[in-house]
Amino acid sequence: MKIKVPASSANLGPGFDSIGVAISLYLTIEVIGESDHWQVDHNLGDLPSGKDNMIVQAALSVKPDLTPQHLRVESDIPLAHGLGSSSSAIVGGIELADQLGQLNLAPHEKIEIAAQLEGHPDNVAPTILGSLVVGCKVNGHFTAVKAPVPPFAMIAYIPAYNLKTSDARAVLPKQLSFKEAVQASAVANTAVAALFAQDYEKAGELMEADLFHERYRSKLVPELEIIRNVGHEHGAVATYLSGAGPTIMSLVDPQHISDFVDAVREAGLKDEIRRLEVAPRGAFWQK
Ligand SMILES: Nc1ncnc2c1ncn2[C@@H]1O[C@H](COP(=O)(O)OP(=O)(O)OP(=O)(O)O)[C@@H](O)[C@H]1O
Ligand SMILES: N[C@@H](CCO)C(=O)O
């Protein structure tokens, strides 16, 4: 039995901590069988291989008396790169507990648990539901709404360097003025309306007009402005900092992908570029 959990790309510009999209890169957790201790074989470098692994910790937070298992974990989601690897691990752990503990959790219950563990729903909600999701905390619980899937290729520029979410949050201001907060939220509201209206010309402009986080983080990820400018000339509808970065995501019309990629290379950017898709389905089990 295997669980497949998609990656995710959060924020989409002004939807800071609120909007995210499931992405076609996967964390796979194979259940080999019961064991006398938790054992996690993985291809993820020096991450923990026992009970202290994030997947196991998430599973035990849901059901502390789960029987220990031998798991095999593989992932094509780069760690600490703004593609939601920690959320995929948390959601994978919740799915594991749900299945092994026969809990039959509803999607909204999984979102509640996962968002409490992660702190915000922008990565975990699309990782659970698939496609594009807008969510928030309200009246002490998390809520999430699925939006139409944008009909674009997601072209990710993945810098070689890592950027921990905690470091990328440390550069954000503690406060915004009332006037700035009103303007930032007006941009985000209109971006969401444009996404639901499937008016991608308007959505693209608004996705590039974030006032919550990108202007503070762009000094950590100087490639953002370069790729955004390339995108304006070469077929990108919008370019944004994926999650806390450093991955930069561009929504590109499929007809313009090779032109866009060539132009990014001509701008002197040499790190990995991957063509990804929106994953329409959230985490699921396979025999
Ligand atoms: N499969 C996994 N198993 C165990 N721990 C993991 C796994 N995937 C990620 N992690 C943990 O999550 C950390 C990365 O989380 P972080 O929030 O910094 O970045 P991210 O989730 O990849 O990006 P972002 O939140 O910006 O989209 C890793 O350093 C590791 O500690
Ligand atoms: N919304 C989060 C995503 C990463 O957890 C951020 O940008 O910090």
From TrEMBL:
InterPro entries: GHMP_kinase_C_dom, GHMP_kinase_C_sf, GHMP_kinase_N_dom, GHMP_knse_ATP-bd_CS, Homoserine_kinase, Ribosomal_Su5_D2-typ_SF, Ribsml_uS5_D2-typ_fold_subgr. It is found in: Cytoplasm. Keywords: Amino-acid biosynthesis, ATP-binding, Cytoplasm, Kinase, Nucleotide-binding, Threonine biosynthesis, Transferase. PROSITE patterns: GHMP_KINASES_ATP. It catalyses: L-homoserine + ATP = O-phospho-L-homoserine + ADP + H(+). Residues 53-130 form the GHMP kinase N-terminal domain. ATP binds at P78, L79, A80, H81, G82, L83, G84, S85, S86, S87, S88. HAMAP family: Homoser_kinase (MF_00384). Belongs to the GHMP kinase family. Homoserine kinase subfamily. This is Homoserine kinase. It comes from Lactobacillus leichmannii.
